[in-house]
Automatic annotation (TrEMBL):
GO cellular component, one term: plasma membrane
Official protein name in the record: Flagellar biosynthetic protein FliQ
Family the entry assigns: Belongs to the FliQ/MopD/SpaQ family.
Topology of this chain in the membrane: Multi-pass membrane protein
UniProt KW keywords: Bacterial flagellum, Cell membrane, Cell projection, Cilium, Flagellum, Membrane, Transmembrane, Transmembrane helix
Localization, UniProt: Cell membrane; Bacterial flagellum basal body
KW RNA-binding (keyword) present: no
Length: 89
């Protein structure tokens, strides 16, 4: 068992986590920026105005991208389980 194999597996897992989280977070960040510019332009300082659109967009990203997210996670898990014999021997 080479340490390089485990480092490769760990780096693949971390990259997958970054991709999955960014697919959920980036739309919320964009909507948050748009709402912040709108609030700055109109001088409206309402807390729910900044929170609710980000929550809705994050939930929509989970609803519409959920299948893709689960598929990526399943592909990684299947690839990880399939590589067990080569890692152990």
């Amino acid at each position: 068992m080479n340490p390089e194999v485990f480092v490769d597996i760990l780096s693949d897992a971390l990259f997958l986590v970054i991709v999955l989280v960014s697919a959920i977070i980036i739309p919320g960040l964009c909507v948050g920026l748009i709402v912040a510019v709108f609030q700055a332009a109109t001088s409206i300082n309402e807390q729910t105005l900044s929170f609710l659109p980000r929550l809705i967009v994050t939930l929509l990203a989970l609803i519409f991208g959920g299948h893709w997210l689960v598929q990526k996670l399943m592909d990684f898990t299947i690839r990880l389980i399939a590589s067990i014999p080569s890692v152990v021997s």
